[in-house]
Design goal:
about 100 residues; mainly beta; two-stranded antiparallel ribbon
């Protein structure tokens, strides 16, 4: 499955507990079709101190969510959009379906 989302893209969440939230993609996992979005899908992790002097405790961090649950936001028209592909001079680029701007 091809993913239309890349690291650094601004995306909006389409479904789930964080529906409507916007954030920047921190990392992608194409083999699992998942993405990690900044400030979205926060989970609490109970961490144990591994080294001497290190502190343990309860930490909140972002968990991965399916790439199909997010949609890329166009930087030009600032609308959530599906990604189209345009081939020009042998180069494939991602473009906005609404305004045609390069993503």
């Amino acid at each position: 499955m091809a993913m239309n989302v890349k690291k650094g893209d601004t995306v909006v969440v389409l479904s789930g507990k964080d529906k409507g939230k916007k954030g920047k993609v921190q990392s992608t996992m194409p083999s699992e079709a998942k993405v990690v979005v900044e400030g979205v899908n926060l989970v609490t992790c109970h961490t144990k101190p591994r080294r001497q002097g290190e502190e343990g405790g309860i930490v909140r961090r972002e968990a991965a969510l399916y790439a199909s649950k997010v949609q890329v936001v166009c930087p030009k028209c600032s609308k959530p959009t599906r990604v189209a592909h345009k081939v020009e001079g042998g180069k494939k680029t991602r473009v906005c379906k609404h305004c045609g701007a390069e993503l």
